[in-house]
Amino acid sequence: MQEPERFKSPAYLGVLDATPATQVCRMNSQSLGQMQADCAAGYPLEACGLLIGRIASESWQIDEARAVPNLNTQRAADRFQLDPDAYRQIDSSLAGTDKEIIGIYHSHPDCPARPSPTDLEGAWEGFAYIIVSIQQGEATETLCWALNGHGDKFQPVTLKEIA
User: How do residues 99-132 score in pLDDT, each as one tens digit?
Assistant: First the structure.
């Protein structure tokens, strides 16, 4: 993959904390495949969605990935804006279950699956962030990230595919 120069810049490198997170992200194969397919289908624009599951002391357990419209119309090739109505509808649908929204996923068309300064600006503490690199319409890399203890950088999170 040809990495865009901006991913080598101090601004982009400055959002990364090399210390791996202690938590692990577990995601079932079906949801992982569906998320990657949704991201590929959105190419060449960024696709986005919500991660549904449960949070334990040492892990995120993702049971489902639900696509949500990207409302960004000005820079949809390199920015996403989750549809707040879709977020509320999904959140309401989970009431009374043991599941909740525990993270966000989005794609990086023709870019690495590493967070950007824009991703950091909108990040919420406690959420898992999965980024899917889409190269020429194909999912090539899927990585998980979370805010570090200071909330000022992303740490890599081990993403484990489970049956």
Answer: 999 999 999 999 999 999 999 999 999 999 999 9
Strand partners, 89: none
> What is the pTM assigned to this prediction?
0.96
Spatial neighbors of 43 by CB under 8 A, at least 6 apart, are: 107, 109, 134, 136, 137
The sign of the CA dihedral 101, 124, 81, 36 is negative
**For domain 14-162, is the CATH number 2.60.40.1180?**
no
Can you give the residue ranges of every domain in the chain?
Answer: 14-162
